[in-house]
Write a structure and sequence with these properties.
The protein is mainly alpha-helical. The chain has 2 domains: 88 residues, no CATH class; 213 residues, Orthogonal Bundle (MetI-like fold). Helix content is 75%, strand content 1%. It has 14 helices and 2 strands. It has a two-stranded antiparallel sheet. Helix 6 packs across helix 8 and helix 7 packs across helix 8. The radius of gyration is 24 Å and the shape is flat. The two termini are 14 Å apart. 31% of the residues are buried.
Length: 317
Amino acid sequence: MPRVLLARLLQSAAVLLAVSFAVYGLIGLMPGDPIDLMLSADPRLSSADVARLKALQGLDRPLLDRYLSWLGNALSGDFGYSRLYARPVVEVLPAALANTAQLMAAALCLSLLIGLPLGILAATRPGSPRAAAIHLFALAGISIPPFWLALLLILLFAVLLGVLPAGGTGIGDGGGLAFLVLPVTALTLAGLGGHVRYMRASMREALRQDYVRTARAKGLSEPRVVFGHALRNALLPVATIVGLEFGTLFSGALVTETVFAWPGMGRLIYDAVMGNDYNLALVALLLATATTLAGNVLADLAYLALDRRIRFGEGGR
């Protein structure tokens, strides 16, 4: 186990380094830079002022030199300043990160708690009216655009019924929990269909295996066959999906956060990219990448916990 974890961490570090270079290069190749934006906002700046400011910010240096300088500073804990917020990046991220983690964690937990049991119910009685209803519900959840679903929820609960706030965080109003209900509901319904379908397909495949037929032939009850024998193996593919979704816990959902005016990481990344805030955009995107890689590591560990026969790194696996 320690060797597997160390190998995965080293691989993740290499991927993160490659992604940091790619993202830095793409952001650096975007048209315009902070100095060009300052020039457009203040036409009194002369070409000499522009050249001096670019030299001061290091924007007149080759892209590779700038990246290596940024990497050295980042490894020492200095991620630079945010141009949009006029504050160090490490001071800007925590608030948006906490808002997104609160929103996305609640939505993911609810989606799993509802979706996995529904998927198991649909798989145990294929072709039944119950399975057809669950399948239709999952298909509707996948097909409905998130922004349209969010707008419907606002119209129903905030405009027509007036029982829930339409957006914001409610900080300072004493109603923070009420402000979470609509965005969490929208994200839960958006992810629920996928979890139902993944669990249904995985469980149906597990129930076709020989060991399940053997358990039934021995006279075991259906709940014991499903939950005692098939469920553990059926959860293996689902663990991969959940591990990939772990990255969204800290990268946010741009559409939902925009509709509900939720100041999370999705909005922060979008504003940083559109505002040419290099340092903030780069660190936020790398944080999203790091959490996705962490989710993959957690999925590998879940494999080992669910099926101890799995041995990573041995025999080419």
